[in-house]
Fold this protein.
Amino acid sequence: MARYPKRQKVKRYRRSFYTREMRLKKGIGIAVLVVAVLAAAWVAAPHVLDWATHTWYTVVRDRDLSASSAVSESASSGAQSTAASEPAASSVPEKELEPEVKGTDIVTGLWAEVDVTTLTDEAAIRSAARQLKAQGMTYAILTLKDTAGQVYYASQTAVGAANAAPTQVELTSVASIFKEEGLVPVAALTAFRDPAGARADHALAIRYQGQEYLWLDNKASAGGNPWLNPYAAETVQYIGDLIAEVHAAGFDQVLLENVRFPSSTSAKQDYGNTNGVDRAGQLTADIAAWQARFGDAVTLWYGYSLAEVTGSSSQLGTPAAQLGVKNLLVKVPSSSTLDAAAREELTLSYQTVGTVRNPLGPTVSIYEDLRAHQDSHRRAELEARSCLSGPHKDDLAAWIDGQPARQFASQGQTRTAALSLKLAERELFEDDTGQWPVLLLDDVLSELDARRQDFVLDRITGGQVFITSCEAPAGEISRGKILHIHQGALVDSPN
């Protein structure tokens, strides 16, 4: 076997092409440059500090309009030394005591809804209040009259007593305990969307073309419901009496929801004598009547959606802000309040066979496209012995941030998207019928992180809900009950 000569390692030397004289000149130049930079910084430093001080004071002045004139003058001049105006280190001003917050005062803070059906005793009330306080909440909203017209306390009004909810809470205890725990209790009352109240007293209801029977917002077979009549003085009196009752129990702040008309503007609606007042004018008069009755004793809030605030609608006749409302509670979708970096946009598209040009187009064009597809795939269907065309092949495609969820979404994202559709379907059902359907969620939390679990649990605000899971939720549940099942048997639960 031929042998190759052994490779020799070549030692390389690094050679400098600078002479001793050149290195000396280079070092002197660098030293001169450093000295020049330090001198420039020394000269410019007072101007930089003065600019920064002026900017800081200007910001403070713009944010605090009640600041003293001395601060304003120093902000505008920027030439005086700040040290001269500062007090000596030994003279530390005493901290001013925070003013006592009255029950009707509006304070800055977070809002949370509380399920009143869980407030069965003092321990449950205090536990719920402490959980909300630990989460940083300021206002606690308790629905005491829902969209079905049920009243969740012992009302002394005839209509309220006739529509008592199965679960009744002791208002005085609830209000006092929530206040003791540092929360502002808010009584939420549904105003004119009240089918139970309309059926209990027809004098409060919208009639059907002058007939004795009631107008419904949909066909009776489709779950249509009657509404209270905003033009009826009896209706305004009834809602005002409920406000008076919750206020007497210790609720100094009341949230009125559904202060609006039904969506329909059908001529079959009989409101009685309207005196030529339009919808917006009547709602304005009702709000003014409640405000005049309670004055400063009760802080009245009015809850509207973002769409009802920003634009006019048939329910209001004008934007909500133009109804004379002093305290407007705007319900903003969670997607609008999340940080843009954390928000995900879910979109849907309807997919059918590829030859259908417009799945949502006219029926004739869809039929022609499906027929053409069927004819072109006739031989393939016979060979496959199955139908390759038809609605059973259609599907809904989900997209997250413009990417197909099927290819790019994680398991948590996929499950969150599916749950979002299910919860949206549930809310649409409630909007149409006024009743919450029973919601069954089987093992929905197992593949969700803590943030997504909180999203799911926070979106479930009403109705009866059953959730099964092999794991306990990451966070605490402020309402509801956890049941533990071991080997097919119900075991004791701490809550």
User: Anything to note?
Assistant: The longest strand covers residues 137-145. The chain has a mean pLDDT of 76. Residues 110-332 form a domain with the TIM Barrel fold (CATH 3.20.20.80). The chain has 16 helices and 15 strands.
